[in-house]
Write a structure and sequence with these properties.
Prot_inh_I78, 80 residues, two-stranded parallel ribbon, Trypsin Inhibitor V, Chain A, mainly beta
Length: 80
């Protein structure tokens, strides 16, 4: 029987690729529209990382890291 790791191999909506497709190129805001993703719909464990901001190096596999550029547009999404 193959090993299935939730969030990595399953398609339950929590994998990095799913979040990447939902967030890439959008800004984070209060509501959804063509160019904005609502912050309230992000997972409980998340952080928004701005350019030149400091962040802890602790690794939490369930935490979603949303990297944004200077104007707040999502450029990269990772877990950890």
């Amino acid at each position: 029987m193959p090993l299935v790791v939730p969030g990595l191999q399953s398609k339950d909506g929590s994998s990095g690729d799913d979040w990447m497709s939902k967030l890439m190129g959008k800004k984070l805001g209060e509501q959804h529209d063509e160019t904005t993703f609502a912050k309230t719909d992000l997972p409980k464990e998340h952080r928004v990382i701005k350019p030149d901001s400091m962040s802890t190096m602790d690794h939490k596999p369930e935490r979603l890291n949303v990297h944004v550029d200077d104007d707040g547009t999502v450029k990269k999404v990772t877990h950890g």
